[in-house]
Amino acid sequence: MALRAWTIRFRPRPARRSRPRAALVARALLLFFASSLLVTMVAEAHAEPSTQRAVLELELNGTRHGDVIVLLSKDDVLVPEEALRKAGVIRMLSRSVRYQGVQYYSLRRSDPPLRYIVSEQDLVLQVIAPPHALASATLDLSEPAPAGMWRSDEPSAFLTYAPSLSDFSLFRVFAEGGATAGPWRATSSASYQLSESPVRLMTQVAYADRRNVRELVVGDSYVSTGPLGGTVLLGGIGVFRNFELDPYLVRIPRLGYRGSVLAPSTVDVYVNDVLVRRASIAPGEFDLRGVAPQSGAGNVRYVVRDPLSRQSDVVVDYYASSGVLAPGLTEYSYAAGFERQRFGVHSFDYGQPLLMGRFRVGLTPSLTSGFRGEASRTRLSGGSQVTFAGAHGELEIGSAVSLSKRDGLSRGSAGLLGYYYQRGRVSLRAVLKATSPRYATASLDPEDDRDLLEQSTSVSFSLGRRTTISTLLGLAVARDAGQHARSSVTFNRQLGSATYLQVIGARDDRPQGVSEYQAFATFSVQLPDNHTASLSGFASKTRSELTASLNRPMMGRIGVGYQASATLAESPRVTASVQGQNKYLRADASYFYDSFGKQHTLVDASGTLVWVKDGGLFHSRPIAQSFALVEVPRTPGATVYFNNQPLDKTNGEGQLLVPDLQSYYGNRIRVDASELPNDHEVDEGEIVVAPPPHGGVRLVFESHRLRAVRGRLDPVGLPLEAVRYGELTLRARGQVYTSPIGARGEFELDGVPSGVWPAEARGETGYCELQIPIPVDGKPIERLGALPCTAQVSP
């Protein structure tokens, strides 16, 4: 399209001559339209006279994105803006051209520059864009909770009992009971001894806020404010950060890596040379986040490969510390109540009121800071704590002060300095703690003896895969008791595939200048059937002894274990114990005898009664955390798998109690579908459930009979030709079943559960509805005959 030259001449305006307003408006409009026409013609001139439209397949950095309409000229290609953005190009600074209502970008004039090749033979437009011109992607490589995990909140209850008989004369019993419903949990425990009154132990009601990973507790709970603070059993109310509510939350800072690729690529992430994740990366800039490091010093290696087998390796060193929180993550405990006294002896003995609190927050990936405080009517104690993690380990610094008023005013202070390092087979831990003579906390009175100086250093390292050497040096200077020091060296060696040796040399320096050297050695052998035999000896300046033992641990959920030993010493002795458990009970018995005629026996047993809503009451061996009732209706003898391991078979009612679930973790439970009748299948193959502590859940694995039903449509209100060769659709229990319709209206459906289900038949010219009855008990192939299908008006 040729451009025309426009010439606009301006004449001098006659003095004092007025024009009508209409004439001025007309001239302004004429000037506006003329300018618009000129701009449009200039813009269209960029789509040069020789441009032509073409349909090409757009390929960006090796990835095809479908056909687009482009404008071709001698030395340029104009691509629709929308097509480039859909392909991932988000940064284009070249001048755009609007042609026939479509916005185009010039590849030749682009900034950043885009290289391109037009393949006339393949009709492909190959474009190569730099990474910073493409859309950036953020990939979270963290390990989330298992897909489909069910955080159960069904009502349940339990009662655990543990009677014991000591020396056939002293009878005791311990009991703990509780219930859960939704986020609420209530538990209480007690003990009883003959000739004495029952004693209440721990009682609490807790509300679990899983979303915010915190817990509200009313009742008895142990409260600690850190290494320089006190630890008290408090009866009252408290709010605690409980990371056990979300075991998949990584508290320590995670690692990441930023980079860019020109083509679709794959990244492999190695932590200490172990492959942990693999992910696909689109062309452009990427940001990998959420890589969980192992504790201590290590490295992460990112290996990026593109389709042309080009590879780039990036290695990043790190130091991960369990004492450092991720940035923005907080850890806290706040409690108010009364100190529990003479616990285990009296049920309701509470002392002075207390306020206790501790707070920590991750400020940066390497710095965590916090404070603590305690207050009572006669005492104030508080302090701060800072934890720093760098390339050479973790440094912890703490300080505290106290003010007590009982028989006068007393002040105190304390400090803590700790250093921790771990890398591969080497670990180091050094802690120095200093306390003034009158420093006090909620659990330490000014009058109590304490270590004015406490130092502990331990070093451990491995020499190959079979040898480990560790050393320990500890020093404590007590205010009243004096100085006490202990040092030791431990040597562990695997001599063969089933033989082990441990040797320990130690020196113990007690007050008044008394020192003693000690030596301890153990030789053990692994025997068949999980038996272990060992011979150990101990020697010091004052005594020596030699012990031979044989033991077999209790393996599995049902089994028996035992331990027997004989000791040759100044006072020879013999000990023996046996343990056993089945699905309903656990029992232990032990016996002790020495040469002085002293004997001691202990027999105890324990079990748990559990109740689950809609499941009933069951008896089980002791439940440590949580439990599940598995039901496979009408299927006795079905094998239940727990975390991919066969557990047991369902009883005659198709039920099995699983007592070993982990609280808040994703426990995988499934049934063996191959053991069901050939014409049955399970609706849900596996259930991943995360129950609360002391809580239970009912898991029902519904199964239905596999069979085919055949029938024939008998249309009412429309001819058969209207639905012939159409499709029949039936919906039952959230599933959709379909069948083609034959020439005579015949159909066949597979796997439909029993019941009466609505269905519809659609053809090219008609639509009808019907009810299809599926008998409860029937043949593998059920013939339903002719079924009326009522005509409907097609929507």
Put the structure in a nutshell.
The protein is mainly beta and 795 residues long. The protein contains 2 helices and 55 strands. The radius of gyration is 40 Å and the shape is globular.
Overview features:
single chain, 795 residues, mainly beta, Ubiquitin-like (UB roll), Immunoglobulin-like, 24-stranded antiparallel β-barrel, seven-stranded mixed sheet, globular
Protein described:
Among the domains are: 52-134, Ubiquitin-like (UB roll) (Roll), CATH 3.10.20; 145-179 and 543-705, Sandwich (Immunoglobulin-like), CATH 2.60.40.2610; 253-320, Immunoglobulin-like, CATH 2.60.40; 707-791, Immunoglobulins (Immunoglobulin-like, Sandwich). The chain is 4% helix and 59% strand. By secondary structure, the chain is mainly beta. It has a 24-stranded antiparallel barrel.
